Amino acid sequence: MIMNKVLVVVVVGIALLGLVAGCATNEGTKAKPAKVQPAQAAPTEQKPKIEYVDTPSGRWMVHDENRPAPPVITPGTFSSTRRVGQAPSDAIVLFDGTEGSMKNWTDTKGQPSKWVVGEGYMESVKGAGYIQTKESFGSCQLHVEFATPEKVQGTSQGRGNSGVFLQGEFEIQVLDSYENKTYPDGQCSALYGRSVPLVNACRKPGEWQSYDIVFHRAHFGKDGKIVTKPTFTVLQNGVLVQDHVTLEGGTQWNGPHAISPFRAIPDKGPIQLQDHGNPVRYRNIWIRPLQD
Question: In the chain, which residue ranges form alpha helices assigned H by DSSP?
Fold first, then answer.
């Protein structure tokens, strides 16, 4: 027992001596602290802009897929070979299905468009860009017929995407919204990012559809501020989908959950059709300028 106690004392003593020696050695060889460089601020990540709209169904983010979608209805039938709305005698015919009427259209740089003409229609070409009228218009009644691709490819915004722009600025969305879920303020006949249609009146992919639009233009003051906001009444396939809606801002994409404000534009602008990478067809386009 005594022998064990002596052995423990010896071991502890040796350990303490080693610890002291080690501390002394470390103290003697310790390098001087390095000069601390001022910390650089980490790059700030730009957060996506998020905007909200207040609606009868509650507050929703712009382009929110959880926002209640409009009810689906079946529009009245018509012959696939008959035009939905023939131009009245006082209308300006912008496209009648012939190669010759392409003279009324250019690309956004004023050059001949690369869109192609088929049997009674013109079709967007991926990468060709928007096509627009040579003539500019303000308030108007506009008739447009369109068909999204019969062969379904893509989902949501990647399926039959295009658009009709009034005053060269404000978009009525064209999309294959037949059994295709997307954010309701970006589905077919929406005032893009601004107003959900009253109902989904879409026909099946590949079938011809129509827009009849009554548009009263935006007015801007000399200071560039909005004076009179634009209004839209839209019928899709003969069904009222936008009922004299007043726009509260622009319809340009501004992020996943944001939309553009108003920006000053001329009193008149071209009618534009959007190339969004999908081969969407258009036919029988005419317009009647309206007094403000």
Answer: 2-29
